[in-house]
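User: Second chain of the day. Same drill as before.
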Amino acid sequence: SLDVMLTSYSSRYGLSPDGKWVVYTLPMDKPGEQSGNNGPQADVWKMPADGGKAEKVVRFPSRVHDLCFTADGKNLIVVSDLGGAYNDLWQFPWSENPLAQLKKLTAGQADEDRPSVSRDGKWLAYSDNRAGATALIVRELTSGKEHTVAIERLDYRCATGTLRVRTNDRDSKKSVTARVVVLQDKG
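Assistant: Same format as last time:
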């Protein structure tokens, strides 16, 4: 099932902007083996978000550390160390002949991670450590111009503290692994 696949190893996944498709990755790694023994590639898969059969899009030639869709839903932006020692951002169409249209968006002696495209498709935000500490970079997609977002202070708008959560099975009362979402009062 998709649930099992997404929790296996180092899968990454994204939902298309129209909400119709889930795209996810599966590395070649096998349980109990050292990472990379079976190759650095990652298979990129797609499946209808409302269920159905998964279909392989492409075998990406290196690990995929993260991914997101472009605003129009036609392309994927992936984080990969393809061809180098650092993570870069790469773009390709997820539907037709992906590797023939592979385009490198970033380069340099630093890691770019966590890409996110604005809804209007004008901006790409990602993290980058080229100047030392990880920073947030915003790129205008039409011109390629970038700027670093200055973080002057953190304001949580409320008191912060420590929260301890223990999840137990309702019947057996034994501890279980769970995904937990914590919401502040009023959402």
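The chain has one helix and twelve strands.

User: Great, on to the next one.
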